Amino acid sequence: MMNHLIDTFGRRHAYLRISVTERCNLRCVYCMPAQGVPLKPRTELLTFEEIIRLVRIFARMGVDKVRLTGGEPLVRRDFEQLVERIAGVPGIGTIAMTTNAVLLKSKARRLYQAGLRKLNISLDTFRRDRFKQITLRDDLDCVLDAIEEALAVGFRPLKVNAVVMRGVNEDELGDFIEFVRDRPINVRFIEFMPFKDNGWSRDKLVPYREMRETIEEHYVLSPLSAEDDPSNVAKEFSIRDAGGRRLAGSVGFITSMTNDFCGACNRVRLTADGSIKSCLHHPAENSLRDAMRGGADDAELERLIRRAVHLKPYGHAPMEEIPAEANRSMISIGG
User: Fold this and answer.
1) Which position has the higher pLDDT, 330 or 136?
2) Which of 2, 13, 84, 136 is the most core-located residue (most Cβ within 10 A)?
3) Distance CA 65, CA 67 (A)
4) In the chain, what percentage of residues exceed pLDDT 70?
5) pLDDT by residue (tens digit) across 300-312?
6) Nearest to 120 by CA among 98, 142, 104
7) For the chain, what percentages of helix, strand and coil (3-state, to nearest 5) are there?
8) pLDDT (tens digit, 9 = 90+) per residue, 149-161?
9) How many Å apart are CA 308 and CA 310, to the nearest integer?
10) Fold of domain 15-333
11) Would the pLDDT of 1 be above 50?
12) Taking phi first (over 0 means left), then psi (-120 to 50 degrees means alpha), and beta for anything else, what does residue 271 get?
């Protein structure tokens, strides 16, 4: 019988998010501090062999979904080989990736063949000037081309993540909805979350209810699942236009700040340098890398993993208090 990863609140953890690098080819203002982050030398990052060893241990404890993140995961050399190796781990049923898609177009088909099935692409604007303002790079065309290629390859559902920030891109909600009119894409609007040195303030937060009301001035949204189901990370809706036509895509809202889903969280995180974190906004972490390199056997690693999950808090602090916590920046944790 499988001994699942269950915390003190009865939440079973079946979802592992692994950051494979702290490096990124964009510098999104809500993710990377303006002064940058000191990058760790490659020797301090988990090797592919160490990642696979940990995935096998997590799988034996009931984890069946792995999401690969960064930084930007596609800047990690031989990333496709890592996907293929994870796909071969018994018990892993789903492999997903979150990417900024700058390097995706030429890699999408190979990643699909390697076993990647779920894809989240970060895109916060369709305007070139704003894209440069948010990311400090001029790669909008690369991202848009990669989205079309991912659809052609067969990624379903394809998700596009947009962080909505007041005074930056909140006036583009309708543009995103129109983008999915004829594309089978789930566009997900994410409430701006506070992290170390990312310039967050409550004034910049556009709450879920406000975003929804803005969209419903021109479209009809119908829930695809119960809005009060705590297991739903996103509140998902089908979309009809004013003429009653149903759009090919759908819309979701990630309401981490105004209506969190902590009560049913099933995630655990592994940073690129091998620390396990049970909560995105909680600073506590423990180095599995150091344990492995110190000679720990699988039983000891499993004990450390269970201890981290056992100590997981019920939820994160109020949003106004999160910036003061001694946590890593978003790019150092992993998306």
Assistant:
1) 136
2) 13
3) 7
4) 93
5) 999 999 999 999 9
6) 98
7) 30, 20, 50
8) 999 999 998 999 9
9) 5
10) TIM Barrel (3.20.20)
11) no
12) beta
pLDDT (0 to 100) of residue 321: 57
Q: How far is CA 332 from CA 18, 157, 203, 279, in A?
A: 12, 27, 25, 14
**pLDDT of 242:** 94
DSSP-derived 3-state class of residue 90 = coil
Q: From the centroid of its chain, how far is CA 77? A: 20
Cα distances (Å, whole numbers) of residue 270 to 250, 318, 332: 30, 24, 11
Residue 69 Cα distances to 99, 122, 182, 186, 290, angstroms: 7, 11, 28, 19, 21
- What letter represents residue 291's amino acid? A
pLDDT band, residue 228 (cuts 50/70/90): low
Q: Give the pLDDT band (50/70/90) at residue 185.
A: very high
Asked whether 306 and 5 are in contact (CB, 8 A), the reply is yes
Q: Which residues pair with 163 in a beta bridge?
A: 190
Give 326's Cβ-side CA count (13 Å radius): 2
Provide the 10 A C-beta neighbour count for residue 25. 16
- Burial-class residue 85 by CB neighbours within 10 Å (0-12, 13-18, 19+): middle
**Residues present in the chain in total:** 335
Q: How many CA atoms lie within 13 A of 317 on its CB side?
A: 13
Sign, CA dihedral 20-25-26-32, equals positive
**Domain residue ranges in the chain:** 15-333
Q: In 3D, which of 194, 244, 199, 195 has the Cα closest to residue 219? A: 244
Residue 279 main-chain phi, psi, to 5 deg:
-150, 135
